[in-house]
What does this fold into?
Amino acid sequence: MNFVLVASILFGLGLYGVLSRRDVIAVLASVELMLGAATVMLVGLAGLPSLSSQGGADPGTIEATGLLLLVMAAAAAAVGLALLVAIARSTGRTRTDELTDVRDRP
Amino acid sequence: MSGFVGGLIWGLAAGTLIAIAALFGVWWERKVAGRIQMRIGPQTTGPAGILQTIADTLKLILKEDITPDQADVRVFRLAPLVVFVPVAMSFSVIPFAAGFAPLDTSVGMLFFLAVPALSVIGILLGGWSSRNTYATIGAIRAAAQMISYELPRALAVLSLVVLAGSIRPLDVMAAWSPWWIIATAPGFIVYFIASIAEVNRGPFDIPEAESELVAGYFADYSGIRWSIFMMAEYGGMVAASLFGAAVFLGGWNWLPGIGGILVFVALTLALVTAMVWVKWTYPRLRADQLMSFAWKIMTPAAIVQLVVVAVIAPWL
Amino acid sequence: MIAEFSASSIAFWLLSAVSIGSAAVVVFTRDVMRLAISLGVFFLTVAGWYLYFTHAFLAVAQVFLYAGGVLVLVLFAIMFLRRSKAGEPILESRHSTDSVVIAVGLGFLVVMSLRDRVPIALPQQAFPTTTELADILLGPMLPHLAAVSLLLLVACVSVLVVFGGERE
It folds into this structure.
């Protein structure tokens, strides 16, 4: 049992949420779970000596990379939430199976 | 394990400090407000009315803790704690004396900015779970306001970080010199105003504006839970004053030994009094004035301050 | 493997339990406020993981950006889209075996692909100071930092455009 297993479980849970949830906010929250799990995995793995000995990064570079990743993911979340609210306000729908405007309707 | 025990002791100490600060702060606020309005303020209970807030506290504890019928009960009960705990945590990184902060961490300045920001979640939870339109509007206003004023506050503190070359509060204090007061004066003013907005005090108290929203996000709270909200407000005020007095005004750097501590306490008291003074002197802002003030005046001022500091830092 | 009784292992088990538990609540709860609260707990445990990996700055940045920023935006979105009524806000899910198979399979794939890379115990590594971090961000990684700043600006403007488009 180590963090790889934990991060994989978190990632799997997030993925399951994305696939099974029907409400856009819940889908977005599940995407956040996946992003969090991936970042934990990256930061944890990058600090391992087995990688460092193969020319891996030093802790400072890992931290800098993680920081940039955090900022990017937060920006993506902000844009996603703004789009979600705009769509919900213009169409009044917040369920993923109702948002079918760009799909051919029979 | 010793770290755990130490943390426990400091947690208790911070809790006691906030409780005393709230007791004293309420009394002090009523006295100052009385003077500003040409009254005397509380005077019958104890000398100069100093026991008045203790009597009030007893009354609040004995009052019934009402939960609204329609409320989301668990979230409703959780919310005051989510507001209070981050404020209590923010006390832990304040440099109280030379070489001493309860939690001496290398990211202390950022910690002090980041952790109290979590209070806004408690406010949103409280406003939502009351299932009350006034409370919901108050919570949304509070969140918008606190997020907007976090930015200039962080930028103002950043100018000190640039001067000191470190975000460890004790390093900043060690590098501090009296010239910084002149160099960061606009930054300090921005920090002070943003701190008032951050604890939702007047003139920035539109989230709890009693003339429009009854009491905003805590309209449905009563008894001890209501007083936890009030303790968070006074605790936040004292924490912001302590931090501002330390890193902006030099705190205990002015005099060696015990004299420095006295100067630090005096500076903090002066800042607390200034916050009370501002509250009872200025009328409440409108929501749009509040936002345009944050984004059109405070944030640009803090950015200009940061640029100025970045340019002069090599010579200072 | 027998877990030794140390502060580090307690922290590890506590973090694992709380992060998986809060993630499970996010995925399975039917109440929208429970979802937001457990998402907040999850963000805080991610900060805890960074602390566990001795990256204090990342942890504080995570608290600042996610618990103080993204979570507030999520709560904002919830409050914009729904009214708080007793018994009302129910989130729907469509549970199906396909989703379970895909999620479990992908998680398993990740674990299997990393299995011989990762030692059991986490090594103690040097604590990167904030000064080092600043040297790296403003030194070799300056182009990355500039690119991310630009991205952030674009995100900011696009949020304003998306929201401002409604005003007429």
